[in-house]
Amino acid sequence: MFFDDAYSGKVFIMGNGSYEKSDVVIFGMPMDYTVSFRPGSRFGPNRIREVSIGLEEYSPYMDRHLEEVNFHDAGDMLLPFGNAAKSIDMIEQFVDKLLDDGKFPLGLGGEHLVSWPIIRSFFKKYDDLAIIHIDAHADLREQYEGEPLSHSTPIRKACELIGPENVYSFGIRSGMREEFQYANESGMYMAKYEVAAPLKEVLPKLKGRPVYVTIDIDVLDPAAAPGTGTQEAGGITSKELLEAIVAISNSEINVVGCDLVEVSPPYDAADQTAIAASKFVREMLLGWTKK
Q1: Tell me, what CATH number does 139's domain have?
Q2: What 3-state DSSP class applies to 274?
Q3: Which segments of 132-259 does DSSP mark as H helices, in order?
Q4: For 139-168, what is each residue's pLDDT tens digit?
Q5: Which pTM was predicted?
Q6: Pairing state of beta strands 189-192 and 210-216?
Q7: Residue 12 in domain
Q8: What is the C-alpha to C-alpha distance for residues 168 and 170, in angstroms, rounded to an integer?
């Protein structure tokens, strides 16, 4: 069982449509078992839902209303606390089901390791999959303190699975020297510090391809998003991230699924991080799931 049948928590605004009639399924992955600094992102998905009540249902960026999208919020997965290996297997199995049912998966983390099983699932369906990765951190380590299952490893795992030439990272401003060397030598694409401008240059190269997009909220400067486990100074503004989301929407790539991770409410008493994240989720819903 992936979810609690008695789940009665908050849903993302207007996300109470039925699973059967939905085109898009939002699901939370409340896992933060491998974080290397501050835990708390397990509480991110539900807080994003709770603050979404403050959103308008209409987006001036996309000129669309949430009533135009058939989506279902499944709630948070029931993941075995502390067991990262079993949790990522469960996430992969659930996304397999979503893809078999013809749904567009929109995941809420949780730490960034939760993206890894989703990518594995998508690669079984799309052998020409590309990844757009927006983040402060390279996430290209092979292991952290001897542990290969770490929030610092998912993009390296993705490179090894689908080929580094199919991975495009943006906003990167932190990592080991070896991670940047790997990026330079492997053939993957990495744009340091910036997101919107280099992304717009890359998007035409991905025309027509199936693309999975993963966004780590810590790509934002800590002034804009203090509620995350590993803050990194020198980040982008929420305006630039919205510009990037709109650019993806206006491009000719085929976004097949996405996630937003690493919102950690305990470090943001004002909820500005979760509020920003909820707006990004609205734009992802409206911009990337067009029929």
Answers
A1: 3.40.800.10
A2: helix
A3: 154-162, 177-186, 196-202, 238-250
A4: 999 987 777 778 889 999 999 999 999 999
A5: 0.96
A6: unpaired
A7: no
A8: 7
> Distances from the Cα of 86 to the Cαs of 29, 119, 149, 224, in angstroms?
13, 16, 11, 34
Domain count of the fold of the chain: 1
pLDDT, tens only, 34-45: 888 899 999 999
Q: What are phi and psi of 179, to 5 degrees?
A: -70, -45
In a domain, 119, yes or no: yes
**Domain of 163, in residue numbers:** 24-288
**Average pLDDT of the residues in 155-184:** 98
Beta bridge partners of 28: 76, 108
Q: What is the CA radius of gyration of the chain?
A: 17
Specify if 16 maps to a domain: no
- Please indicate, yes or no, if residue 6 is contained in any of the structural domains: no
Count of CB atoms situated within 10 Å of the CB of 74: 20
Where does residue 89 rank: exposed (0-12), middle (13-18), buried (19+ CB within 10 A)? middle
